[in-house]
Amino acid sequence: MSEDAATSLRSRLVGTWTVVTVDELSTARSRLQETLCTETPTPCAETEPTRSLLQDIVLVASELTANALEHAGGPARLDVVSDGVAVTVSVMDRSPDNPPVLTTDRELGEGGFGLQLTLRIADDVGWYRTPDGAKHVWARFVVTDPSPDGPQP
Question: Which pLDDT score, from 0 to 100, does residue 7 have?
Answer without folding.
Answer: 47
